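Shape is hard to put into words, and the shape of a protein is harder than most. The fold becomes a row of whole numbers, each drawn from a learned catalogue of backbone shapes. The outcome of that step, for a single protein, is printed below.
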Amino acid sequence: MPAPKSSTHIRFAAVGDIHVQKDSAGTLRSLFAEADETADALLLCGDLTDYGTAEEAHILAEELGAVHIPVVAVLGNHDYESGTPEVVADTLVHAGVRVLDGSACEIEGVGIAGVKGFGGGFGRGTLGAWGEPAIKLFVQEALNEAMKLESALAKLRTRRRIALLHYAPIVGTVEGEPAEIFPFLGSSRLEAPLLRYPMDAVFHGHAHRGTLEGRTINGVPVYNVAKPLLQRTRPDTSPFFLYELPREPVDEKTPADAQA
């Protein structure tokens, strides 16, 4: 039975990598219905479609039709496969989804910053912008996504903050995948903006065989909520991750608000 909604906490149901295909109609309704009953908002961490087609996006929009709680999403690499990610995003926006791409929103006093992210590796293995132009373009894309995340976080004025990504910002949550593909699963460049702002949690997907939970250098919890990972590691629970934060008093102002 779903847990009753709380008057003291706000609950987020987070999941990524649902990979909707043209024959997926009807396969996600029970998942979304349970999230709708259990949580106060639904967070979708990219790879929402399998090939990024308009047909797949419309099927997902139909599946989300019964969801009455706010839905916030970022796109993933699969949503770019057909070269028209804007079609996927626009279809979801018309269905009432808040699609973030270097932007932010607020749900019941919790600020959410979202960006797809990109690869490039972690720590000492991070790819540098040196050599061929193609390498420099790859690294620049990672830098652009990190700057977009920084910009989104800077927009938030809430005390509680969540980051929504597709690619991983730390190596801890991709462990379990073959080490050879770590550079294509995320980038430490995405972690840097998260260290400059007070954060409550970070959610991402992409690494299907990764690890559920890790932490940034300064201890912020990072959750890999790729649906295949959740189904494999928690087969007896619903394939979304439920996370809760205390509700903020409605009349409480952040320090930034007080100085405005």
User: Anything to note?
Assistant: Residues 123 and 188 are 6 Å apart (CA to CA).
